[in-house]
Specification:
By secondary structure, this protein is mainly β. The chain contains one helix and six strands.
Length: 108
């Protein structure tokens, strides 16, 4: 899998996941292992590539960057929402203990 950095995203903000592995995800297991997912952003969409691991009721997803030797760029936490869709957040939410404590809120 070729790895490239995702476009700019805001830390601590929830983003809707549009696709995982090129299709609409149906379970957290879809994000497991080496894969990519597509987010809806303010400017359109961005693709995040890396490795995911299911942990309880969320996925810890390590975004990778080939320009940095395949090193971790940032960590995403992905959860399934009540409506069946998925959201992903990165940044300060990780430091606050989300998804196990406080969690960011969708804007607007």
């Amino acid at each position: 899998m070729a790895l490239y950095p995702a476009g700019p995203v805001a830390s601590g903000r929830l983003y809707h996941v549009k696709a995982c592995r090129g299709r609409v995800p149906t379970a957290l297991a879809d994000f497991r292992g080496e894969t990519d997912f597509t987010l809806s952003t303010e400017t359109g969409t961005t693709v995040v590539r890396g490795v995911g691991a299911v942990h309880r009721d969320s996925v810890r997803f390590s975004e990778k960057d080939v320009a940095l030797g395949g090193k971790d760029v940032r960590v995403w936490h992905i959860t399934q929402e009540a409506d069946g869709g998925f959201t992903a957040a990165t940044g300060p939410s990780v430091l606050l203990g989300w998804p196990f404590g406080r969690r960011p809120v969708l804007p607007g």
